[in-house]
Amino acid sequence: MAELKYFHILKWKKNEENQHVRRNLVFSNSDGFTSSSDVPILKAPQTKEREVGYRSQVILAVSPAASHAFMALLAKHPKVQEMCSQADTYTSGYEQDGDWLVYWDGIKWYDGYPEVAVLNGFVEALDADDLSDYGEANNAPSTLDRDDVTGTWHEHFRFLRVGEDYEDVEDRGHAFDDIMLNRAVSF
Prior knowledge:
globular; 3 helices; 29% strand; 2 domains; alpha+beta; five-stranded antiparallel sheet; single chain; three-stranded antiparallel sheet
């Protein structure tokens, strides 16, 4: 007679009272799947930070030239300032005195969230070379050491958002060359 092998498979279901339970299934060669009794599951309360959802890694860095506009944004939107202060990294002086860097790891970056929409609007303004809403002239200072050349705001910020999907990457701005997406295979 063939030797019977048993192993357990955990399967989730909802019972008639709509409570979460775990059903232990046992497999045997002779009977196929047979089930044992339902075991109630106690779920830990979820906090807002642990709710299921699509997550991204997001970094925003602004040079000293653009930091005045960034500070104006934070002063105008206290909830955005709070969101930045609760980021994984929120620091000034990343590359040089007066610049700002904000990094979130595992954040829900949805335009439907007001704070995210405000920050996306700021990135759009930088990308469009128009910081007039933030008290800055439209002509950015040049990163070249020449007075006869006007710059663009692209040279004064970097925004990188990497979502969970492989192709979900948004990269804007040309400053902060050490901020980059790095994909690698490790073994």
